[in-house]
Design a protein that fits this description.
311 residues, mainly alpha, two-stranded antiparallel sheet, binds Phenylacetyl coenzyme A, PaaA, oxidoreductase, EC 1.14.13.149, Ferritin-like_SF, 1,2-phenylacetyl-CoA epoxidase subunit A
């Protein structure tokens, strides 16, 4: 009967049916989704830190208001995603504990520092640009709650991407120093952004099963190429240079061909040894500890209310 259930499940996936929380699903499908959705949630939450670093130093009130809204959106995305993961039977406390204890992964990109204001432009343009490329197909993912969460997330990310590109445009049309800042930010963020899409297809351990279950609709290398093809012309419009001397357009294939990615660096960052891994986790742990009284007060309030309604 288990085999039959698995076959029926795959038939539903093949027919583009949505799987909902109370439907039967293979244990591995559940585990894969908990893994991916929780890593995605953690990425949003840790992803608030590099930009949060610049809220007090934004160059104008308008920039500050936009950045505050963006960082707040990221917190919201993290919360929808934890809620989507909870529909699979895992608790938020458990997931947060995995993050704070260093057992859970989150996107490698958030372990790089934001050294200048131009980094805020580069993050919006490139990091949110890469995030959208990866998340648009997730709106059609086979698991209903994840797919639905992605629709709103993608709308907000596209605003984030535009605010970043507009910062880059302003800087690149500004003084020589501003243009240099924009170029320097592009130099530092380009390669780590390409790593966001994950290991090359040949080394991606989860891709085959995730594609079969329509959690993933495109491979890591496929999305990476789409991102490069979309982004190179945007860099040209800014008058900035992609830091890859081998980058060239392949007329026959119709794609921008990029150079070798430093996968050793990627592995180091995943192993916890990127420029800011320790700092990011330390800040999250402190925030969690500092917020303990809020959780306690909320629980005490809920207990009092339920006692009052029982009487
Ligand atoms: N960093 O077999 P695969 C954002 C791990 S956007 C860290 O290819 P899969 C918005 C992978 O988890 C960023 N780890 O895995 C924002 C697996 O480890 P495991 C978040 C990575 O799942 C913007 C192992 O390597 N977006 O937050 C990375 O099939 C601006 C083997 O890899 C998402 O999470 C990496 N870059 O494909 C916020 C999107 N790449 O679990 C603030 C949803 C791979 O075996 C500011 N996730 N790994 O220990 C996905 O689409 C997929 O999980 C991939 C990886 C494509 C990331």
């Amino acid at each position: 009967p288990d085999g039959e259930q698995a076959e029926r499940f795959q038939a539903r996936i093949d027919a583009d049916d949505r799987i909902e929380p109370n439907d039967w699903m293979p244990e591995q499908y559940r585990r894969t989704l908990v893994r991916q959705i929780s890593q995605h949630a953690h990425s949003e939450i840790v992803g608030m830190l590099p930009e949060g670093n610049w809220i007090t130093r934004a160059p104008s009130l308008r920039r500050k208001a936009a950045l505050l809204a963006k960082v707040q959106d990221e917190g919201g995305h993290g919360l929808y995603l934890y809620a989507a993961a909870e529909t699979l039977g895992v608790s938020r406390e458990e997931l947060i504990d995995q993050l704070l204890s260093g057992r859970a992964k989150y996107s490698s990109i958030f372990n790089y520092p934001t050294l200048t204001w131009a980094d805020i432009g580069a993050i919006g343009w490139l990091v949110d640009g890469a995030a959208i490329m990866n998340q648009i197909p997730l709106c059609r993912c086979s698991y209903g709650p994840y797919a639905r969460a992605m629709i709103r997330v993608c709308k907000e990310e596209s605003f984030h991407q535009r605010q970043g590109y507009e910062i880059m445009l302003t800087l690149s049309r500004g003084t020589p120093e501003q243009k240099e800042m924009a170029q320097d930010a592009l130099n530092r963020w380009w390669w780590p952004c390409l790593m966001m899409f994950g290991p090359p297809d040949g080394e991606s351990q989860h891709s085959d099963t995730s594609m079969r279950w329509k959690i993933k609709r495109f491979s890591n290398d496929g999305l990476r190429q789409k991102f490069v093809d979309a982004t190179v012309p945007q860099a040209h419009f800014l008058g900035l240079t992609i830091p890859d001397p081998t980058l060239h357009f392949d007329e026959a294939g119709g794609h921008w061909v990029y150079g070798e990615i430093d996968w050793d660096e990627f592995r180091r960052v995943l192993a916890g040894d990127g420029p800011c891994n320790r700092e990011r986790l330390a800040v999250r742990r402190k925030a969690h500890e500092d917020g303990a009284w809020v959780r306690e007060a909320a629980l005490a309030y809920a207990a009092k209310r339920s006692a009052a309604t029982r009487q």
